[in-house]
Amino acid sequence: MVSIIIPCHRKGDADWCVERIKQMYIRNFEVLVIDDELCPGVPAKKRDFGAEIAHGDILAFIDSDAFPPPDWLNNARGYITNFALGGPSILPPDSTLKERIADEVYRHLPFSYRVKPTKPMIVKEMPTSNLFVRKDRFMEVGGFGCDCLTGEDTLLCEKLGGCLYIPELIVYHRRRPIYHPLFKQVANYGRQRGMFFRAYLGTVWSYAKNFISSK
Fold first, then answer.
1. For 103-147, how does the pLDDT look when each residue is reduced to its tens digit (9 = 90+)?
2. Could you tell me the pTM of the whole model?
């Protein structure tokens, strides 16, 4: 069975995502929505809590502002290994013009494979908006084990030895619209990632060099 884990702040934040999950072709899954009432703290802590109480042998992580197509679980079958498993988080069809412009920005960044399908490959990390891992492997490496606001996906994939990227394993994920909301998100993300790298993986530059040398 697959345990789909969705962290959020308040009850109702993930309703939109859950309604789409109910349309899955495969029915052998459970949905665990972990809000502040169940587990206060950063998303990583909520995801670790969800994994602890999950009944499935496969953990599937998705964000509350994302949603999967009906064949999401089908596309993951047969690919689950000792690595993490992930795919691109693409723009929903009903996105606004400003969201589409923001998406174009992401598509021209070095990690553009995260937002548009490309070839299958092993990558160093994939975000938790679309990430699968075997529960036994997850528990073996200590889960995310991270108290930072972001970066738990990087840490988990590092402990698992990488992530298998499957281009057809898509979810739809909202973008912050250009200009101010997008740039504010990028600035906050950059600041939090800097704190994460100092706490868990050394400097951003040393990690970047390691990433480049592994390609």
1. 888 888 778 899 999 999 999 889 999 999 999 999 999 999 888
2. 0.85
Q: Is 18 exposed, middle or buried (0-12, 13-18, 19+ CB in 10 A)?
A: middle
- For the domain that residue 151 is a member of, what is the CATH number? 3.90.550.10
Q: Is the dihedral of CA 193, 194, 195, 198 positive or negative?
A: positive
DSSP-derived letter for residue 14 is: T
**DSSP β-bridge partners for residue 3:** 30, 59
**Can you list the positions of beta strands (E) in 103-155?**
121-123, 130-134
Q: How many domains does the chain have?
A: 1
Q: Are 95 and 175 in contact (CB under 8 A)?
A: yes
pLDDT (tens digit per residue) in 57-90: 999 999 999 999 999 999 998 898 889 999 999 9
The CA distance from 29 to 16, in Å, is 17
138 located within any domain: yes
Per the domain annotation, does 45 fall within a domain? Answer: yes
Question: In terms of residue numbers, what domain contains 86?
Answer: 2-178
